[in-house]
Amino acid sequence: MKRIFAAAFSYAAALVGAGFASGQEIIMFFVRYGKWSIAGIIFSAVMFGVFAAAVMEVCINRRTDDYSYFLSGIMPRGIQKVFAVLSLIFALSVVCVMSACFGETLYMMLGIERWIGAAAMSGATAVILLSGRKSALKMNAVIGAVIVIGVSAFGFYFLGYREHQAFSNFTESVVSAVSYPGYNLLTAGAVLAGLSAFLRDVKEARMCAIASAVMMFIMMALMWLILSIYYNKIDLGEIPMLTMALRQSRLCGLVYSVLISAAVITTAVSNGLCAVEFIKPYIGEKLSVMMVCVIGFAFGTAGFSRLIDTAYRWCGYAGIIGSIYIVIKSFKFLKNKEK
Fold this sequence. Notes:
- The protein is built from 14 helices and no strands.
- Helices cover 82% and strands 0% of the residues.
- The chain is mainly α.
């Protein structure tokens, strides 16, 4: 159970980034489309679990924790290269968004210039990436547990002290929700491949996938409920969940800002690892790390919500196609191996 939950928390930490913990993603992809967007949340949680099971089962069967090797066994070289390019672009986009979010959080809480926060996040990411993949994944597991428990606890607290009762207006449009798991899973495979090395067999991989899917559903559903209540009723700002925390008290705001910062660093590290994996064969590991972090700082000042609503959305449509393709090919590989 320790191995299973450590892997599940590490995977959740990779998915729960600045956009998620802040509430901005939940508004952009779900809340703005009304009550029926809960269907998108259910779909996303299921997709997170199925994808995790597919990738880790194949990696355990092939006895590898190398994502590139995993891809080479389930897709033609041409498609693999296209998927690698998409993954690299999105991984770099995520590092930029994490830098932007940390800068915005420091500005809201302490009045520090946004570029200083972006620079600090880029520097911290570089240090952790240079420590190696195993150390980074272990750190993500510990911080991931704190994030999942903390975000869920705040969700229940906010629901208990809500000021409004009505949800946002009904609309049938839930197409946007499909792109949400897509962009998250573009780079999650690299993390899952690494985590498979900590699990003993396929049974543990499946249990890890179920646990992580349940964690993600609980957090997404809680945020959806809270933000649906307040959407279009108050100014939620760039970081909606932090705005909600500050409405309770300054102390709540400080505690939640720590949770956001934790989510920022784990996701920046996870996606930074993915980007480095694709770049290092060409320019070496250390130079790859510096390149990724410099890009993160350079674009991290473009505006937090603007980055989420553009880079994330378009990468999501491509990602959901790629993720479904990987799931189908993975289960086909496993079925053939059984025969």
